[in-house]
Design a protein that fits this description.
heterotrimer, A mainly alpha, B alpha/beta, C mainly alpha, B: alpha/beta, Rossmann fold, 8-stranded mixed sheet, 12 strands, about 35% helix, C: mainly alpha, 12 helices
Amino acid sequence: MAATAAAVVTRPIAPEQASLWSDAWRRLRRNRMALISAVYLTLLVVVAIVAIFKTPYSYRAVGVALPYSGPSAANWLGADILGRDVLSRLLVGAQISLIVGVGTQVLVLAVGVPIGLIAGYYKGVADSVVSFIINVFYGIPDLLVAMILLLLLGPSLNNIIIAIVATRWMDMTRLVRGQTLALREREFIEAARASGAKPLKILFGHILPNALGPIIVQATFGVPAAILFEAFLSFLGIGVQPPTPSWGSMASDGLAAIRIAPHMVLAPSIALSLTLMAFNFLGDGLRDALDPRSRR
Amino acid sequence: MANPILQVRDLRTQFATEGGIVKAVDGVSFELYPGESLGIVGESGSGKSMTALSLLRLVPEPGRVVGGQVLFRDQDLLQLTSEEIREIRGRDIAMIFQDPQSSLNPVLRTGFQVDEAMLAHGKPKNQARARTLELLKKVRIPAAESRYKDFPHQLSGGMRQRAMIAMGLANAPAILIADEPTTALDVTVQAQILELLADLNRELGTAIIMITHNMGVVAGLCTRVLVMYAGEIVEQGPVEQIFANPQHPYTWSLLKSMPRVDALRHERLRSIEGMAPDLLRPPSGCRFHPRCPFRIDKCFTNEPQLEEVGPGQRAACWVTMDRARKEMGADELKDIRPGAGSNVHPGEDR
Amino acid sequence: MLTRGTLLYIGQRLVLIAFTVVAVSSIVFLGIHRLPGDALFNEHLHGTQYELLLHHYGLDKPLWEQYTSFLQGMFLHGNLGESLVNRGVPITPLVLRELTVSVEVGLFALIFTIGLGMLLGVVAALRQNSWVDYVLSTTSVIGYSMPSFVIATFLILLFAVWLDNLTQGTFYFQIGWTGTYGSIGEIWLPAFALGFPYASIVARLTRASMLEVIRQDYIRTARAKGLRETVITIRHALRNALIPVITILGPLVIGIITGGVIIENIFGIPGLGKEFANSILNRDYNIVIGVFTMYAALVGLANLGVDLLYVVIDPRIRY
């Protein structure tokens, strides 16, 4: 990643790029929903990091309050079936969600960007094979395949991330491929090729920086998709395993006690919805900012 | 002559854009007589299509008819409720459009789209269908029964435009407005469609308003012509007279740039030199003066009004071609490039 | 509509689906049987009892023989084997019964997805840039950001718990499947929870495509004919606006099928999804394989159905 970042700075990029980023930033600042979302997500990240070192109670400490007891001064979000502090568990759950969300997108980028670049740049057989595989994967029901994968691999945080990447890598690959196909015909790429630049340099030094906008947007939308996926799996009991809390498994536990302790299901459900919403609003904002034509 | 069937008075249509108000139609007045065929000519952006759309209140957003009257059978179409104007559309005044490819709905059967014109005005389904078949035959579509069931993409461009014409004629309207009906078609097909329109005009007595940028089309079909420039009528009169003796320099340029041998062969007008006017900031005085080879000082500041220049012929020009000819001599005039905006009145120019 | 070409196309697709089903079930079968320990190792059985059971399920044979007899059973007799947890329960009739339940719930969910989604999209397009449009656009983002189980939670709270508390037990909706549609909690609420997130996506797409369509020349033609606005909107605009919506129907249907796994668990609906989740939790491998095979067929057929819908909606497409 560091090498790529350096490349962005030092290599010549398309002339319209420089002003594009400052224009985009200006447009993004005018989008109120995106800004609120960005603030919320920043807070969430800060809180999740703080929670590594300090939570009100240990997330696994049983009986810190009466089982099912509602919100109180001591336990702001009440307690669960074993008398564990819901707030502490929610904060640790936030860590899990963010790790899964960001972790999958890092892997998706690591898989999708090179494959997409190669398929788009070399076209021909490589492209046909990649396109075929992408289409096959689009035809399979992702959640079901991820469930089977977890059954085969065994449930762990790493395997959850692997299962999500295995079923959701196609969006990014297809996007990068499409961008590369379009960019490789542009004059400044032709010029680079004519001046004898090596393919690797063209791909990562010229094409990738110019496709960065759509890639960022796609990755932003990919994070909530992965978080949702993890919540689904954990809700079904085949994701994150107890006693580690996940928003999905907390909601599942809470749903069983919905009549006597609705706070148990409401807390993780609302946290999850707000987080997904924030990512989606931010993604919308980024897309509108980076591609003004798509705005209404 | 009989009473006019349609009287347009001081029609004004404007578009509110981000840059300001565009006066697409700016004070247009004319009459249409029963059974006649009237041409409206001009370059793109002259306001001819917007004039036509304004008559039936079909101007697209953000356009708006802001003033004037459109009198049809003693009622002002601009004052009707939306339900009343809907009843006029397609029944009394029908309209056909430039591109039959995009003007027909791709997911509905061609015949049904003709039916609809009648169903909209209360004709029972089976009668509508019978009449559609009759109409498809009348516009010379072969194998009408099977074409009825075809979707538009299964027809050729000419067939599609014939179907559009059938649709226009469905309710035997008093007026048919044809907005560049031949522009998107092949040359031979263009001729066939024009011939068809001429025949229908003669046989059925339907009055036709023909919107075109092609003087050749006017020559072939129309009895009277309006020449529009920058949202205004600059000259009007009987076709033969205008062709023989145009008085407005713009009309003269249009005719001069018209290919003589076969008017239909060359699709677009060989464009007149100079830029078409910016309607956001129209030129002062006479709107044609920046491109006019015969302009005088007055043209920069004062706007000319339509005035009688011959029997039934009116032009809005301070100079007029008669005077230009008189002062310069016929031979010299031949060498002047139309619309060049050159100074042939050196003494009078600023 | 059903030309020779179309029938041929359907035939080819069905063959392809059959191949996919075999491939998918084979991968799952072989994958599962390579797991350490055998399918019965959870039960702590000993001696002859264990041997007998192994033999009963054919687990004492080599993997290759197990696989061929599995394929034979599936194709020659439509037999997907027997549950490992509930002894003696044959899987095929069980899964088929559950399939009908899941399809039923899925179709109800599609009513919300398509019906509600298109309605909201059309309204937003016709009132472009008004407050209605703004509210709908924002709710749309909220809609697809809400996981189906969160929507389900709120529905249960609202219709079962809070309504119950509010009326002190005199009026509320029973949640749970009886197979009789006795209460909206039985199928309408789960269908709504399942369909609504996708309805938001459909609404967005419909809005965009309606805005595109109402600027088209043929809408002007329709108006010039003297058609009423309602006829123009429904017959002329909506039909065309549907075309891009169908392109995402395939993924939507897959989403509804997979989403059913969660919703069926929440609302206690005895469908394929509930069975699938339970069988994975119980490690009832035979049922996992059976249900997954059924899913592969269902997804294939649903995609075929969507592709055939194109032909109905857009006459320019022929196979």
